[in-house]
Design brief:
alpha/beta, TIM Barrel, 2,3-Dihydroxybiphenyl 1,2-Dioxygenase, domain 1, 3 domains, nine-stranded mixed beta sheet, 20 helices, elongated, disordered C terminus, binds magnesium ion
């Protein structure tokens, strides 16, 4: 089964796009005519360029406004087609896409259109070319693949077939099961695209909002399942018109496309094992059991300050690595690492971004299988030189500058803490003795990225892991909008929020500017009793984010809370929210200068949210706090001057 992507889906010049497509692992491309015209070079040169990259031109598209025309338009359409056939011969491709006409003069009539295609088939056959007919969702007379198929069936020519495009079928809510009645050998080509569920004009929706299968809300897998049921074994190609992709980084978008296509084909196989999906075997979506560790890159003063923060949160330094400047801080099941190594991934991350999360260890059922699936989906493995006695833990490069390690019990990888580390009872230098605060596990981690990268991350997590996405939520930062997408495992395991910043003025945007691709902006830790935790934190001199009195007045009015309960919240700077399941409590650390912070949460009664209603007030408080930091640094200089 050949995989392909249309040049129109990507940014960059043709050379860059082809390089990225080959690099990502695709077998071929659709050459979109406009991209060819914009290129400074002839058809033969483009054909050679494609083949030199090890790719094949699987389709030339689109040829518009062909069928059902009266004279003189009809004759002109045929001569236009002959010129395109010339071009295809020079490019070295066999397949042309004709999309259903939107020409004002087009007359319609299934038989008239079928006659036109029969004649076009004759002309194509003389040159050994094939023509596929695609129903555009907004076509004048043909806007449904069932009508396009009837035209093709009546044209009854071996060189005329049908082209199916998931967007055109699914956007019009046509049942994909209707594809099952079409003979597979008459389907010449299949294009896949997803799209978010937005109610808008079909043409505008298609040209600007298509996205990769799995990134949107259309049932693309069911569509492809119906296609495969016909016995179709031809190419599967991505044709994605999206404004963000056409301005985004070519390599990332292409890699996303490959990941989405392979995941979709694998889903088909999992859903219906009797289908012949010509794809190497791959492990199923990995089952996440939780976060084994989160590693911070930190050196010198920043490492000491961070250790003090961890100590004030009740964490204890428990283990030291035998060979490296690497410490394990622990409380409950939460394991936070401080890595001060210089010549290492952590060292590079620190040099680039300062204190940051440089690595995460995910507890999975099967680490080797997770790595295998990740590689099949196009992720690059990650490895560092090992010293004697160190375990080889499967790892990949995530998006941005991140690294993910996979640990399981079955292959003994979780023994790493005994094998590579030695216990310590000496407190870290400079950190006062503190008391535990009842933080027992990681509730969620929050990644921050540009809005354009949100789809990449969503796809990354949902294609590799058994995770589901919840609805997108808009979070109001006083200086702009942040969109938030939550991803969760079906069983307790991992919760992730992806926050897409649209402007650099937002708190998320500011973090993004300083973090250079290290994207974990906050980590939320869970407690069973936030008031007890808050008291213990206060004893440890933990610096909580101060919340203003107005917030608590509003809270009392919104939720009908008892006055003494509200006073308790305010005394500890605890934020409150509730849904149908139960209440949700939040408490924030003061943000570090780069915008990173910890959150402490208590969920009751199975509360599902993340405190979106509180976010605007929390963000305003964080910005106020950070402005205070800037002032206190700037003040002495001003005094001197
Ligand atoms: Mg199409
Ligand atoms: Mg949060």
């Amino acid at each position: 089964m050949k995989t392909s992507i249309a040049t129109v889906s990507l940014s960059g010049d043709l050379q860059q796009r082809l390089a990225a497509i080959a690099n990502a692992g695709f077998d071929g491309v659709e050459i979109f005519e406009q991209d060819f015209i914009a290129h400074d070079g002839g058809a033969k040169e483009v054909g050679k360029m494609v083949r030199d990259k090890g790719l094949e031109i699987l389709l030339f598209q689109p040829f518009r406004d062909f069928e059902g025309l009266p004279e003189p338009y009809r004759s002109r359409a045929f001569s236009r087609a002959e010129r395109k056939f010339d071009l295809m011969e020079e490019l070295g491709t066999k397949n042309l896409l004709v999309c259903s006409s939107v020409h004002p003069a087009a007359l319609g009539g299934i038989d008239r259109m079928a006659d036109d295609f029969a004649e076009l088939g004759e002309r194509a056959a003389k040159r050994g070319l094939r023509v596929g007919f695609e129903a555009l969702a907004w076509g004048k007379h043909v806007s449904d693949h069932r009508d396009a198929w009837e035209v093709v069936r009546r044209a009854d020519h071996p060189n005329i077939g049908l082209i199916l495009d998931s967007f055109h079928t699914l956007a019009r809510k046509i049942d994909p099961a209707s594809i099952r009645a079409i003979p597979g050998d008459k389907i010449f080509f299949v294009q896949l695209a997803d799209a978010p569920a937005i109610d808008m004009d079909l043409l505008y929706w298609s040209r600007h909002f298509r996205n990769m299968p799995g990134e949107g809300d259309l049932p693309v897998t069911s569509f492809m399942q119906a296609v495969m049921a016909t016995g179709y074994q031809g190419p599967v190609s991505l044709e994605i018109f999206n404004d963000l992709f056409r301005t985004g980084p070519t390599e990332t978008i292409t890699a996303d496309g490959y990941r989405s296509l392979i995941a979709t084909l694998d889903d088909l196989r999992q859903r219906e094992p009797s289908l012949t999906v010509d794809l190497p075997a791959m492990a199923p979506r990995s089952k996440l059991k939780g976060i084994d560790f989160i590693e911070f890159a930190a050196q010198d003063d920043q490492a000491e300050a961070f250790a003090t923060l961890l100590a004030s949160m009740g964490f204890e330094r428990r283990l030291l690595h035998r060979n490296k400047a690497l410490e394990v801080w622990q409380q409950g099941d939460v394991r936070l690492l401080i890595n001060a190594e210089i010549n290492s991934h952590a060292g590079d991350a620190y040099a680039q971004a300062g204190l940051c999360v440089c690595d995460m260890g995910l507890a999975v059922e099967d680490a080797a299988a997770t790595l295998q699936r990740a590689r099949m989906l196009g992720s690059k493995p990650f490895a560092q030189p090992l010293s004697p006695g160190e375990l080889e833990i499967p790892a990949i490069r995530g998006l941005g500058a991140s690294v993910l390690h996979f640990l399981d019990d079955a292959s003994g990888l979780t023994r790493v803490w005994d094998l590579e580390f030695a216990a310590t009872s000496t407190p870290a230098t400079g950190t006062p003795a503190t008391t535990p605060t009842g933080l027992h596990s990681i509730d969620h981690i929050a990644h921050t990225m540009s809005y354009a990268q949100m789809l990449s991350w969503t796809l990354f997590y949902t294609a590799l892991f058994d995770m589901e996405k919840s609805a997108l939520v808009d979070v109001i930062d006083p200086d702009g909008l942040v969109r938030s997408q939550a991803l969760e495992t079906p069983q307790p395991g991992l919760r992730v929020t992806l926050n897409g910043a649209e402007t650099h003025a937002t708190l998320a945007g500011r973090f993004l500017t300083s973090s250079l691709g290290s994207s974990v902006q906050h980590i939320a830790l869970a407690t069973e009793d936030i008031f007890q935790t808050a008291k213990a934190l206060a004893e440890n001199s933990f610096a909580a984010l101060p919340m203003p009195q107005n917030y608590y007045h509003d809270l009392a009015a919104r939720f009908d809370l008892r006055a003494d309960f509200c006073q308790g919240l305010q005394a500890h700077n605890i934020l409150y929210d509730e849904d149908d399941n139960g209440p949700f409590f939040q408490l924030y650390s003061a943000p570090l200068a780069n915008g990173f912070f910890f959150e402490i949460v208590q969920r009751q009664g199975g509360h599902r949210g993340y405190g979106a209603a509180n976010a605007p007030f929390r963000i305003a408080a964080q910005k106020r706090f950070l402005r205070g930091l800037t002032k206190s640094v700037a003040q002495p200089l001003a005094d001197r001057g």
